[in-house]
Amino acid sequence: MSNPILQLKDASIYQGGNLILSDVNVEVNKGDFVYLIGKTGTGKSSFMKTLYGDLPLTKGEGHIVDFDLKTLKEKEIPFLRRKLGVVFQDFKLLTDRTINDNLTFVLKATGWKDKKEMAARVEEVLTKVDMKTKGFKFPHELSGGEQQRVAIARALLNSPELILADEPTGNLDPQTSIEVMEVLQDISKNGNTILMATHDYALLLKYPSKTLKCEDNAIFEVVQRKG
């Protein structure tokens, strides 16, 4: 029995009046690990932005974690984003505070109140990405790979139903990319659903999974050849 967390039907994605992707039909089910590939400028980021409410969906149908993208109101976007974990290429950590404070800041912003509960949750997610001992450090004291692990931990804070990872290894060297990928794989094995945009084809070969490709204003599933 499929359990779609993300479903787009005959959707068109526009940015600033320009048609970026047309007739998009995509389904991501609970527990899936899905890649989104395609050259720069083919619409991967616009697709991601539509999913987390940065771009409106004006044509077709779209449902994500129980939200209707077509009727999504401005005031609903923060609630949508609480159910999503978003990991960006450039980490987006707050440089003026420690890792623990970065994560606590997100919890406070999303309605957590109890200090003990917040501290416990921060420790829990940092443990998941093997960064438990680094919580007292500032972002600039960490390597790129460590910062991205923290960004993944931050995405996990509110137990999201879907993690959108937009080029999470884009700024990392190959070895660090694999380390970050291992973290994402572990999270996926725990039942988290992940949609990851990437142009790192080496990762697709090493960790094969369902793959969607953006090309010629369309998104289609790529069937990976075995062996």
UniProtKB/TrEMBL annotation:
Keywords: ATP-binding, Nucleotide-binding. GO terms for molecular function: ATP binding; ATP hydrolysis activity; transmembrane transporter activity. The keyword DNA damage does not apply. GO terms for cellular component: plasma membrane. It comes from the Bacteria. Residues 6-225 form the ABC transporter domain. SMART domains: AAA (SM00382). Signal peptide: none annotated. SUPFAM superfamilies: P-loop containing nucleoside triphosphate hydrolases (SSF52540). The keyword Thylakoid does not apply. InterPro entries: AAA+_ATPase, ABC_transporter-like_ATP-bd, ABC_transporter-like_CS, ABC_transpr_LolD-like, P-loop_NTPase. It holds the Pfam family ABC_tran. Part of the ABC transporter FtsEX involved in cellular division. Important for assembly or stability of the septal ring. Belongs to the ABC transporter superfamily. This is Cell division ATP-binding protein FtsE. It comes from Pseudotamlana carrageenivorans.
